[in-house]
Every structure is written in structure tokens, then in C-alpha cells.
Amino acid sequence: MAKNLLQQVMLKKADEKLSLKPSFIDRDALIEKINSGYTINRVTKFTQKKSFAPSTIAFSHGECPRYWYLAFEGADFTDNADAYGAANMTAGTKSHERIQEAMGNVPGLLVDSEFKVTYNDPPIFGFGDVMLNWEDKELLGEIKTMPNDAFEYRKIAGKPKTGHLVQLLIYMKILNKSKAILIYENKNNHELLIFPVELNQYMYEWVENTFEWMREVRKAWESKTLPTKNYRSNSKICKTCPIREACDNAGTGVLKINSLEPLDEKQAL
What's CA 229's distance to the chain center, in Å? Predict the structure, then answer.
């Protein structure tokens, strides 16, 4: 605690000294200009989804049947990422590449990376991070990066983030894998943390039900039967939805489809 307080005092004094120095440039304006470069190309654009994405299923609006109906129909997608969020995603991509390269440098370890993972019914498309050769067996691996606080929490909790597990389970189902790993990297110091995931009866049934849910949603779109809303407009899921405007303008809908059943991590882990 004392160390953190001392660091705060030192940083404050450094900021004060910096602000007292004469400058030939408006520093805040330059910082704002640089940050704008992260979001300048992230604009609203019309997109028509062809398949379910495991990474979206695992995140917020991905559990909403109405979202997927409208995504298959085609809608204007709004990118809500701010400069920090966009920079964070870019850093995550670069970290994936660096970790995959390190794995490739180890003789006989990396079998494949950034490989397509597809399924026909329901239509699913995604990219697996790595396939490793471990003890002469292929081991599916998913890489995630996170800041120090979140990383340390995962260490203490002794379990992965539920959304990450959802994404991995879908890949495991498609690739017919009963065992896989989630690989976490601490963004602050590059420390690694690995969680083995072995399919149990609950996880098996949950992912089977999830595939049936996706089939139901896809069938609704094919029959042009718009699902009704499952959430209030001020809910967190609606607020962060990239096609919220299209949903608001689509009408009330005629078919009730429940939202995707959340994964119960107590039964899964």
C-alpha cells in the first residue's frame, strides 16, 4: 500500500513538472489526434452475416436470437469501440501473433495456427488459435490476453472466464475434441497461465443445446419469422448491441425464442 502511494505521489510530481515546462506544442491536441487514428476507419457499415461466430456467441448480444436474425438479414453495424478499446483489440491481435510465433519456434510443438473452424448445420465460421502437438496428441488451444488485474483474478479464482470457455466448447464440438486448453497472457509482464478443459456431461449437453438453439434461430430467419424482443431497450445487452438501431426499427416481431441459456460455470468446471 505504501509503495503504491509513493508511486502515485511521484507520478503526480512528475506531471506537475511536465506541466510547468514551456512547450512548443499542444500536447493534449496531439494525443487526441493520435488516438483518433485508432477509430478513424471504424465506421458504421452495412453487413450481412452468413454464419454464427463463436466469439460473438460468447459475448453479450450473441445470446440474443433477434440479433442473429437481423444480422443474417443484413443491417448497419455500428462500431462502438473508443480509442482505448480499439488499441486494446489491436494489441491483442499482435500478442496472438507473437505467442504463435514463439510456439512455432519450438520444434514439434505447433501443428497449426489461425485455422478455419466451420460447420454446416447450423452455419458456423471462426478461427482456431492453435493446434499443438502435446505428448503425441493434437491439443486445441485458445489464446486470450488480459491486463494484470484480470490475470491475477483468474489465477486466484483458478478458472477461465465463462465467455472464453463458451467459445472453446463450440470449437471442441466442431473439431470433435474432448480436451483442450485456454492460454492466458498477462499484458503487463507476458506471464502465461493455462487452464485445461475436459468435456464433462454438463458441458456436452450444454453445447448440444446451444447448437439446437442456433438451428432454431437460423430456421426463423429462413422462414422470415422475426423473433420478439427479449430485453428492455435500456438493458446492457441492447446498449452495447452494434445493430440496436436496426432492431428498434424492425418491429415487434411474431416469434418467441428464448435467449441462449448461459453456461453454468459451477457445473462446467
Answer: 23
Q: What is the pLDDT of residues 102-120, one digit of tens each?
A: 999 999 999 999 999 999 9
Q: Which residue has the higher pLDDT, 65 or 21?
A: 65
| Cell numbers standing for residue 120 | 454446416
CA 238 to chain centre: 17
Pair type for strands 45-47 and 124-134: unpaired
- Judged by phi (left if over 0) then psi (alpha if -120 to 50, else beta), residue 34 lies in alpha
Return the SS3 of 35: helix
DSSP H/E element including 92: helix 83-105
Q: How far apart are CA 225 and CA 47, in angstroms?
A: 20
Per the prediction, the chain carries an average pLDDT of 91
Report the predicted TM-score, pTM, of the whole model to 2 decimal places: 0.87
DSSP state of 21: S
Q: In this structure, are residues 82 and 42 in contact, taking their beta carbons and an 8 Å threshold?
A: no
